[in-house]
From TrEMBL:
Residues 233-381 form the Acyl-CoA dehydrogenase/oxidase C-terminal domain. Residues 10-123 form the Acyl-CoA dehydrogenase/oxidase N-terminal domain. InterPro entries: Acyl-CoA_dehydrogenase (IPR050741), Acyl-CoA_Oxase/DH_mid-dom (IPR006091), Acyl-CoA_Oxase/DH_mid-dom_sf (IPR046373), AcylCo_DH-like_C (IPR036250), AcylCo_DH/oxidase_C (IPR009075), AcylCoA_DH/ox_N (IPR013786), AcylCoA_DH/ox_N_sf (IPR037069), AcylCoA_DH/oxidase_NM_dom_sf (IPR009100). Homodimer. The keyword Flavoprotein applies. This is Acyl-CoA dehydrogenase. SUPFAM superfamilies: Acyl-CoA dehydrogenase C-terminal domain-like (SSF47203), Acyl-CoA dehydrogenase NM domain-like (SSF56645). One of its GO terms (molecular function) is flavin adenine dinucleotide binding. It comes from the Bacteria.
Length: 395
């Protein structure tokens, strides 16, 4: 690992202490508002994180981070996820964390100063890939088109479920590039570029971000050729640079939220008396707590193994897909059992578990639904070449 394990553990503990002290007290008023996290609250929490020395630990050292590898990030981001406000305070929430990683790997020259630096310093961004009609789980169905016009590109299309679009400083746009045979190209451009129209935020199950999940129209958006991120026609390859680690950072943050739900449930089970005994002593509840412990343990192990593959230099597409499916479903089970253990209390706003329950449901869809990942995992598992066994049905 890039840091000694003990040092990473101390960083994670520092983050957890910060989250408990500075983020959790802000949750009740925010949840009661029923609104997105305001930009004012986000910036106030980032200022507190800077004062506490925990802001941006996941960032590369050149931009103020701790230079952690993926296994180190796993511990720090899980600690941040213990509060739904923690990732916003540390500026490691989606989509910004994924965009920070993508730009650090791919961006060169002025793109690093004009886009990556302000993003690392606390500005927000958005990633315009997903489209109505399925071009999210299946980007091959993308219809947004970029056409060369002299020294510029002109982009037209519609994007949706674009997290953080309201108030974002810039966008990374994925569009089919007519000059590259229709292969996707990534473009960097300010959100103030004429023709980028945020139509409206889409109503979602739970509000736990800043800037909404928006419908965005691109109407004759003209950008210079210098706006191309990396090389033309390499959008799919660069998207994998972003998406494989981003699946794992989703796992990390949501494990923190699942642990929080489990902690609330087990504390309740240790205090509540029912039918002449502690609630947690009844087998039905004890078994649910045990299943939570096992799901959390296994989810951390799966995430750590996938992180190790990335740290070894592999793209980790197969491993990150498996981790994303397993952790999203295991963490959802943990939160669901926590609601059940809490009983009537679990469906009220008197604990954070009800909000986490609504929020975590989307995790099985974000960054590819479980079904799309299962399809890819299954196809990759088919033996090929020297691994291909004789057809056992061919007598």
């Amino acid at each position: 690992m890039s840091e000694l394990p003990g040092a990473v553990d101390r960083l994670a503990e520092k983050v957890r202490d910060f989250v408990i002290r500075d983020c959790i007290p802000e949750e009740a008023a925010w949840r009661a508002s029923g609104e997105e996290v305001s930009e004012e609250l986000r910036r106030a929490l980032m200022a507190r994180a800077r004062d506490a020395g925990v802001y941006g630990l996941h960032l590369p050292k050149a931009f103020g981070g701790a230079g952690l590898d993926h296994r180190g990030k796993a511990k720090v981001l899980e600690a941040a996820g213990y509060s739904m406000l923690g990732p916003l305070a540390l500026h490691c929430a989606a989509p910004d964390e994924g965009n920070q990683h993508l730009l650090d790997v791919v961006a060169e020259g002025s793109h690093r100063e004009d886009y990556l630096r302000p993003l690392c310093e606390g500005e927000r961004s958005c990633f315009l890939m997903t489209e109505p009609g399925g071009a999210g789980a299946d980007p091959a169905g993308m219809k947004t088109l970029a056409v060369r016009d002299g020294g510029d590109y002109v982009i037209n299309g519609r994007k949706w479920f674009i997290t953080g679009a309201l108030g974002a400083r810039f966008a990374i746009i994925m569009a089919r590039d007519a000059s590259a045979g229709g292969a996707p190209t990534l473009f960097l451009t300010p959100m103030t570029t004429p023709g980028i129209n945020v139509i409206r935020p889409m109503e979602v199950m739970a509000h736990d971000s800043t800037g909404g999940h928006c419908l965005v129209d691109l109407v004759d958006v003209r950008v210079p050729a210098s706006a191309v991120l990396g090389e033309p026609g390499q959008g799919f390859r660069y998207a994998q640079v972003r998406l494989a680690p981003a699946r794992l950072t989703h796992c990390m943050r949501w494990l923190g939220a699942a642990q929080r739900s489990h902690d609330v449930a087990r504390s309740h089970a240790a205090h509540r008396h029912l039918f002449g005994d502690l609630l947690g002593h009844h087998q039905g509840v004890s078994f649910q707590l045990a299943d939570n412990e096992m799901d959390l343990y296994a989810a951390r192990a799966v995430t750590a193994q996938a992180c190790a593959v990335l740290d070894a230099g592999s793209q980790g597409r197969h491993e990150s897909s498996m981790a994303k499916v397993f952790v999203s479903e295991a963490a959802s089970r943990v939160v669901d059992r926590s609601v059940q253990i809490l009983g009537g209390l679990g469906v009220t706003g008197m604990t954070p578990v009800e909000h986490i329950y609504r929020s975590i449901r989307a995790f099985r869809i974000y960054d590819g639904p479980s079904e799309a990942h299962r399809m890819a995992i299954g196809r990759r598992s088919l033996p090929k070449g020297d691994d291909l066994l004789p057809d056992l049905t061919d007598f």
